[in-house]
Design goal:
Strand content: under 5%
Mean pLDDT: 83
Shape: globular
Number of domains: 1
Oligomer: single chain
Structural class: mainly alpha
Number of strands: 0
Low-confidence stretches: 110-114
Length: 114
């Protein structure tokens, strides 16, 4: 797994944890069953990203990796957690914003997959 994929996985994990802690309140270190399932699904999809090492941030990606239901769930999480991430994980948020604003979206071809 590339550095960008690990960074994306870490960011999504923090967002889901923040969402779950504020919306479902199962405890500080635990995710509810629904949020854990979403996190597992997101990790799987990030690992299988067809862009490989050149993975763009999901919001700028042209490929829809998530099934419709999961896509709606992750959008709900991101709408809630996104604005709050600057307070909870400022470094991750700044890295994400830099990647979103400064890096171009790569063209998908067979060489991207590693």
């Amino acid at each position: 797994m590339s550095y960008t994929q690990k960074l994306e996985e870490k960011t999504v994990g923090r967002m889901i944890a923040l969402y779950c802690r504020k919306q479902h309140a199962p405890g500080v270190d635990m995710l509810c069953e629904q949020c854990q399932g979403l996190l597992d699904y997101a990790r799987k999809r990030i690992a299988q990203c067809p862009y490989g090492r050149q993975k763009p941030v999901c919001s700028r990606c042209k490929v829809h990796c998530y099934r419709q239901q999961k896509r709606e769930e992750i959008r709900r999480v991101m709408r809630f957690a996104g604005p709050r991430m600057i307070y909870h994980s400022p470094l991750l948020t700044l890295r994400y914003l830099w990647r979103k604003l400064c890096l171009s979206t790569p063209e998908l071809n067979h060489r991207n997959r590693e």
